[in-house]
């Protein structure tokens, strides 16, 4: 079975599409250029997933949106791979190009305590039990390493960059309820290499950076993203009756997150309120205009290019784990 089934060039500024075999009952659909993080491609992924949910394809049992891909599960007893690809191609022509999309998008405000004690505890355990010479650990933290890797003068410049943009939930996965967040303002792009090897422990609520994505850990788990701080719980997978988390994970595809800086003592108090069931998450339901986003990106394109050059130069100067 060939890995690549078909490639397709779609009209009207839609992304290119590559159809790949993924076993005998899955098709992996990739959008846009390989190894490129493209928010427009991600907008299109979710629009396709919503169209399939609203108008099911016969024989297709499930879709799983990713950063720039859509995994489609089908039943070989009801349909064939070629029929699924044909139906998907029709959907791609029906979905409007990203520039004309307005998508459901909630705005969620979360507190963040940078360089908190649980992050330092996870890093300390890593140094003792896994890799004492880890180059991404500076003075017991990952924050200073991330600041240098991104060409910032100090950690405060890193913090202000994270705080001044909203973060788009491009997909949820790897662990149940774990969001992968990309900056809506391209001038605020940050990146970091992952741990090598991974940590054996990460606190629930930990905020980390790996590649171009910020993540929030939904559970105590291993992890490989550079630790930046901690926020509130984002899942209720064990159905705690006192908890006021959503059912059972906080994040939906297309949510936008705004972080607000707090001291760790304040975060501890807010987390206590969550577990007691008295905290109300700050969620604003609405929609997001992709056209407005693209217009803003175009307006700051010179600054984006300048920031890209700064980031590229800084990366070359820092040792990768």
Q: Which regions have little confidence, pLDDT < 50, spanning 5+ residues?
A: none
**Which strand-content bin applies to the residues?**
25-35%
Count the E strands: 17
Task: Count up the helices.
Answer: 8
The arrangement of helices and strands along the chain is: EEEHEEHEEHHHEEEEEEEEHEEHH
Explain the overall architecture.
This protein is α+β, with helices and mostly antiparallel strands and about 325 residues long. The chain folds into two domains: about 5-95, 2-Layer Sandwich (Gyrase A, domain 2); about 105-315, Cyclophilin-like (Cyclophilin). The protein has eight helices and 17 strands. The protein has helices spanning about 40-55, 80-95, 115-130, 145-150, 155-165, 265-275, 290-300, 300-315, and strands spanning about 5-10, 15-20, 25-30, 60-65, 70-75, 100-105, 105-115, 165-170, 180-185, 200, 205-210, 215, 220-225, 225-230, 255-260, 280-285, 285-290. The strands form four sheets. It has a seven-stranded mixed beta barrel with strand order 7-14-11-12-9-8-15, surrounded by four helices. A hairpin with an 8-residue loop joins strand 1 and strand 2. The longest helix is centred in the N-terminal third of the chain and has 16 residues, at about 40-55. The chain is globular. The two termini are about 35 Å apart. The mean pLDDT is about 95. InterPro entries: CT_C_D (IPR003833), Cyclophilin-like_dom_sf (IPR029000), PxpB (IPR010016). This is Carboxyltransferase domain-containing protein.
